[in-house]
Design a protein that fits this description.
0% strand; mainly alpha; binds zinc ion; 4 helices; 82 residues
Length: 82
């Protein structure tokens, strides 16, 4: 699965659970969050992660953790089948 290319940028390094590279995943996540008018800090608090970690994920610097993905699905920031 790690050999798959990101469907959005054709880049390598898709994460195990999300079929997008960390950069595209983070960009989408940020766009969805901003569209709802939610702050990084506010979302991080609701999810139970640090704002720094969530920010790093949005910037594609770190991979989302399984726990974060579950929480994002619960907040509808990530679709159930994504
Ligand atoms: Zn990509």
């Amino acid at each position: 699965m790690s050999k798959q290319r990101c469907p959005l940028c054709q880049g390598r390094g898709t994460t195990i659970v999300v079929r997008r590279c960390p950069q595209c995943f983070g960009r989408e996540l940020r766009a969805r969050r901003v569209a709802r008018g939610w702050s990084v800090r506010g979302v991080a608090r609701r999810i139970g992660v640090s704002a720094a970690f969530l920010s790093d994920v949005e910037l594609g610097r770190r991979n989302a953790s399984p726990r974060l993905l579950i929480a994002l699905r619960r907040l509808k920031l990530l679709g159930a089948t994504e």
